[in-house]
């Protein structure tokens, strides 16, 4: 399979948060199918070839695949642009499988996920020694069912950092599941709307008071819910990596 589509991670919104490789792919594209609900249109301005642009938000899978196949068969550079990193809730597997039926392969160029952008905006480390060394990426069950054992309630028993995508529209349910699952009511939580965009909003609170704050801010979509003590740690350990009494493969212990 020589013919291919480039699946590109557009990053979280700020047009400068795309990889150099992703930007180059957009510059050289003849056809771009972009996920219009969350890809910043500013990124399309990098294109230098007057590409034909399609917004996949208004299309179904069949239509998306048809446009990509048609472009590739004409020998054009086809880019499929997804928000953040395509591997996270990107619905790319089905596109890859459908393209393969036409003998077309893909190359995937990763992107900066909105989770990284939100953590940067919050100026937090998601994995703090003694607080949490685990980040759970999940979503509430909606029309897409979740496999057994993956409900927010069940995942909550770990008490680790949790990032909830696609969930702000049902924040009451998310918060009650988090509490029922085991998080303390005073666990810090942040909701980041359109991280890295010019109209980004951040709402901070605890599981006790976040719901009215989010309603007040009128955030209903395009936001991440991040929960865990890493957001406001009372006590944590410095890492061993830079501890002068600790030796690593790159650094000897000081005598
Ligand atoms: C279909 S998923 C795509 C996620 C994307 N692949 C990523 O890596 O960020 C869409 C959801 O991602 C989250 N999201 C995407 N971009 C965001 C941003 N800039 N700020 C906050 N949340 C964002 C929201 O929860 C949104 O409902």
UniProtKB/TrEMBL annotation:
Which PROSITE patterns does the protein's record reference? SUMT_1, SUMT_2
- Tetrapyrrole methylase domain location, by residue? 4-210
User: What's the short name of a Pfam family annotated to this entry?
Assistant: TP_methylase
Under InterPro entries, the record lists:
4pyrrol_Mease, 4pyrrol_Methylase_sf, 4pyrrole_Mease_sub1, 4pyrrole_Mease_sub2, Cbl_synth_CobM/CibF, CobA/CysG_C, Siro_Cobalamin_biosynth, Uropor_MeTrfase_CS
Question: What one GO molecular function would you report for this record?
Answer: precorrin-4 C11-methyltransferase activity
One biological process term from GO is: cobalamin biosynthetic process
Is S-adenosyl-L-methionine one of the keywords UniProt gives this record? yes
User: Does the keyword section mention DNA-binding?
Assistant: no
What are the entry keywords?
Answer: Cobalamin biosynthesis, Methyltransferase, S-adenosyl-L-methionine, Transferase
Which pathway does it take part in? Cofactor biosynthesis; adenosylcobalamin biosynthesis
EC numbers, comma separated: 2.1.1.133
Identify the enzyme class.
transferase
Q: Which family does it belong to?
A: Belongs to the precorrin methyltransferase family.
Q: This chain belongs to which protein, by name?
A: Precorrin-4 C(11)-methyltransferase
Gene name in the database record: cobM
């Amino acid at each position: 399979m020589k013919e291919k589509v480039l699946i590109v991670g557009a990053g979280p919104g700020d047009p400068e948060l795309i990889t150099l490789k992703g930007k180059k792919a957009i510059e050289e594209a003849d056809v771009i199918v972009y996920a219009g609900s969350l890809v910043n249109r500013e990124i399309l301005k990098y294109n230098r070839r007057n590409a034909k642009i399609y917004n996949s938000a208004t299309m179904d899978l069949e239509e998306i695949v048809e446009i990509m196949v048609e472009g590739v068969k004409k020998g054009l550079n086809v880019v499929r642009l997804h928000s953040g990193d395509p591997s996270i809730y990107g619905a790319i597997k089905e596109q890859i499988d459908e393209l393969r039926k036409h003998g077309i392969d893909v190359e995937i160029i990763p992107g900066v996920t909105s989770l990284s952008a939100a953590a940067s905006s919050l100026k937090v480390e998601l994995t703090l020694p003694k607080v949490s060394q685990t980040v759970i990426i999940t979503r509430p069950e909606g029309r897409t069912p979740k496999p057994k054992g993956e409900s927010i309630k069940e995942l909550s028993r770990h008490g680790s950092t949790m990032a909830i995508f696609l969930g702000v529209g049902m924040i009451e349910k998310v918060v009650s599941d988090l509490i029922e699952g085991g998080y303390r009511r005073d666990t810090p939580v942040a909701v980041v709307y359109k991280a890295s965009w010019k109209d980004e909003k951040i709402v901070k609170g605890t599981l006790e008071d976040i719901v009215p704050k989010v309603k007040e801010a009128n955030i209903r979509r395009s936001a991440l819910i991040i929960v865990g003590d890493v957001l406001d740690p009372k006590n944590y350990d410095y890492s061993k990596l830079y501890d002068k009494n600790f030796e690593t493969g790159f650094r000897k212990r000081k005598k």
